[in-house]
Amino acid sequence: MAEEKKELAPELKEKLRAEFEKDWRKDLRKAVPPKDRMKQVRQKMPERPAGERNKDFKEVNLGLTQDMAQAEARRCLDCANPQCIAGCPVAIDIPSFVKLIERGEFLAAAWKLKETNSLPAICGRVCPQETQCEELCAMKKASGVPVAIGNLERFASDFERLSGSINIPPLLPPTGKKVAVIGAGPAGLTVAGDLAKLGHKVTVFEALHESGGVLIYGIPEFRLPKAILKAEVDYLRRLGVDIRTSFVVGMTATIDDLRNDGYEAFFIGSGAGLPNFMKIPGENLVGVYSANEYLTRVNLMRAYAFPAYDTPVFQAKTAAVIGGGNVAMDSVRTAKRLGAERAVIVYRRSRTEMPARTEEIHHAEEEGIEFQLLTTPIRYFGDNYGHLRAMECQKMGLGEPDASGRRRPVPIEGSEYTIEVDLAVCAIGQSPNPLIPQTTPGLKMGKWANVEVDWATMATSLPGVYAGGDIIRGGATVILAMGDARVAAAQIDKYLRR
Amino acid sequence: MPKILDQRRLVPNLHLLEVHAPEVARKCRPGQFVIIMPDERGERIPLSIADWDVERGSVTAVFLVVGTSTRKLAALKAGNEVPVFVGPLGRPSEIASFGTVVLAAGCFGIGALWPTARALKAAGNKVIAVIDAKADYLVYWKDRYQSVCDRVLFSSRDHALASKDFIPRPLEDTLKAEAPVARVIAVGCTYLMYACAQATKPLGIKTIVSLNPIMVDGTGMCGACRCTAAGKTKFACVDGPDFDAHEVDWEELFIRRKSYFDDEVRSLCRYEETELP
Ligand SMILES: Cc1cc2nc3c(=O)[nH]c(=O)nc-3n(C[C@H](O)[C@H](O)[C@H](O)COP(=O)(O)OP(=O)(O)OC[C@H]3O[C@@H](n4cnc5c(N)ncnc54)[C@H](O)[C@@H]3O)c2cc1C
Ligand SMILES: Cc1cc2nc3c(=O)[nH]c(=O)nc-3n(C[C@H](O)[C@H](O)[C@H](O)COP(=O)(O)OP(=O)(O)OC[C@H]3O[C@@H](n4cnc5c(N)ncnc54)[C@H](O)[C@@H]3O)c2cc1C
Ligand code: SF4
Ligand code: FES
Fold it and tell me: pLDDT per residue over A88-125, tens digit each?
């Protein structure tokens, strides 16, 4: 469904060329010859020991030191025709920011990132770099090991945040136009920031009581500390963005109501919040959660600190998490941290098909997570009190490739077996949230209950209403949501000034 | 943050809460609910909307004091603020000209059904209310019901108001006396709704109940509130809370509501020992 933009626009190529030709870049290229750059090994991200970190929620990765970051930046060959940029959905000028790090200009590197990516500290942590920028890196082709672009992105933006010198860009004069942004996830927050800078009066309406979307309720603290998100949200407030939490568009007010209140343009960034279940027997037993519920209880409601916080969550002896994506990895590592003796991933395909980031799979293994691959649950069993007690699984083989190009799992008859589990988390995907489509007459919907847009402009079928992120793509990624948002913001600006 | 306008005991264990929430008030319909979080460390709990006032910009709920969250609510005073008061949520109850409608209410349901009673009367129905309470002094809003209903009956476990009985019996009697009855709407504790469903089933009268499973977000995002109706899994917060009582898997609902029983006791002990004002 998602558009892939591989070819860079001619204007962008020209801009990149101009940066490439700058004297300081030439000097840096000359200072260290390519063969010396290629000899350097990739800097390993420092991380907390697995046996320590799997008992708490503090961040796993500690971040590169300045020396490490500069050493890693030195590995970048500063190619005349850099490929990495085409792998980044928002086309960050990767060589420029990496070379600024090599030169020790860390703040300038952070600002360079922010020219195209409004949430670099987050993307540096959660982007699937191995299939995006780093996949296309020349060093990968040359030596098999790409430049650690994601780790460098994280380094530069953490440096900016920790230095306390977050740059507030000049805002254009107020236009007096009111824009409503629905949803405070990465898509909504990005649109809000861009439009505020362009002088519009932006209000973000968020259904939950904290901003961030999946970044606050889904992705756990051990992967993305809440303080980072908070800094991003504070930054938006300083740009003049008004964030109204506990406001459900469609219920508290519809898009039509907001139009009557003077909002002239809208961005729908309401995400893919609706959890899918497998529809197998026993799925409503006590102890079977959707990943959304499990992670929301722990992250947003802070159930890890129960009873100091009032929201409870089940503690398991054996937790099974169904799925092989980031959501599944986050859930299973959470179960381990909450004290599960066994925390098991049950995934119907093999390791190579797992959609999770490689680093997360690797971290999960180190932390003692078990993997039962080529396996799917077929029913749950309860005890006399209706609580989950066991799960029947079936082994799968791999058949012909399906529409996604991955080999289709096929059940193996007679391979059924039962494992005792007292917690199961279903992490098999989410669908777009139907609340806004249901309450917005005339909004055209696509095949997968997604809002339909013109991919060039992110415009929906309604005038002045744009959309982006998971609501149009189904469960995708932070950077794709942000990429959509940047296109939409530019178009909304055009629309308001028409 | 939303401000408390009023919080007081109506009758023992049942409290009224009025909150300043003008945007919510503007959109309220009978049968909808709000989610409230009593303090920054609190749980998000659903409460039915018992009344609203667009001019005052206020929304009212009636709650039964059962555990930590409702105890925290019962300790609030006018002027306090709550971090979350979001709504209105859920699909509104169906209001139309049905003919004769019998309302069966108990506990917080007396409050929760009030907007429905008022709207059904305005829509031209003959509205009869059967109100259940353990004892007569636990009945509230009697005058409100008497002001819009064609008849108001009571059932209680003492003799003071009417027959000494639990609601299904007087409900059955009423349904016979008032036949044909187009529909019954029952709201209150799970057991009351279940008992009413059992009573109306043999008579084949359409019966609507407002289900009260455990919820978290209230917007369809988590699935905590899943219930089975007509053999299909539904999310009560967005597909309900109103369901056809004869299609509900009651056993599952009873079990799922007790999911956190041990934790609730632990939480309450901690609250009473360390925080209770
Ligand atoms: C557990 C988990 C882990 C993930 N890990 C990664 C990862 O490592 N890397 C990666 O790139 N991606 C990851 N993803 C996917 C990524 O988080 C999403 O693609 C991204 O957040 C989508 O952004 P969005 O802004 O479109 O939607 P969301 O982040 O879903 O935000 C939507 C917001 O809109 C609000 N909302 C919904 N309806 C309404 C309404 N009616 N009114 C007001 N507000 C509303 C919601 O409450 C929510 O806050 C993960 C997802 C999950 C669940
Ligand atoms: C749509 C809906 C409308 C409701 N309307 C009202 C109302 O108008 N007045 C009223 O008094 N009660 C109402 N309830 C029930 C009310 O939400 C619970 O009584 C309340 O959450 C109890 O919280 P507690 O912390 O005080 O008790 P706890 O100690 O947490 O639990 C006591 C009991 O309340 C139930 N409960 C606990 N947490 C929740 C939760 N998050 N959601 C639902 N039930 C829960 C449990 O089954 C438990 O048996 C409604 C529930 C729903 C789903
Ligand atoms: S934003 Fe993501 S894809 Fe783009 S350069 Fe950074 S890590 Fe790579
Ligand atoms: S309460 Fe979360 S889906 Fe209903």
Answer: 988 999 999 999 999 999 999 999 998 888 889 999 99
pLDDT in tens, A286-310: 999 999 999 999 999 999 999 999 9
**Ligand 4 within 6 A of B214 CB?**
no
Q: Say if domain A178-273+431-497 classifies as CATH 3.40.50.2300.
A: no
Residues in A closer than 8 angstroms to B86, CB to CB, are: 207, 209, 246-248, 252
Chain A segment 385-404 residues within 8 A of B by beta carbon are: 385-386
- Give the tens place of pLDDT for each residue, B177-235: 998 999 999 999 999 999 999 999 999 999 999 999 999 999 999 999 999 999 999 99
Domain extents in chain B: 3-89, 100-210
Class of domain B100-210: alpha beta
Chain B residues within 8 A of A277 when measuring between CB atoms: 223, 233
A306-309 long-range contacts, CB within 8 A, separation 24+: A306/B263, A306/B267, A307/B263, A307/B266, A307/B267, A307/B270, A308/B41, A309/B41, A309/B42
Q: What is the DSSP letter of A43?
A: P
What type of residue sits at position A283?
E
Using a CB–CB cutoff of 8 Å, tell me whether A306 touches chain B: yes
User: Is any Cβ of chain A less than 8 angstroms from the Cβ of B48?
Assistant: no
Q: Ligand 3: does its nearest atom lie under 6 Å from the Cβ of A133?
A: yes
Can you tell me the ipTM of this complex? Answer: 0.94
Fold of B3-89: Elongation Factor Tu (Ef-tu); domain 3 (2.40.30)
Q: Quick check: A282 and A382 in contact, CB under 8 A? A: yes
A-B contacts (CB, under 8 Å): 109
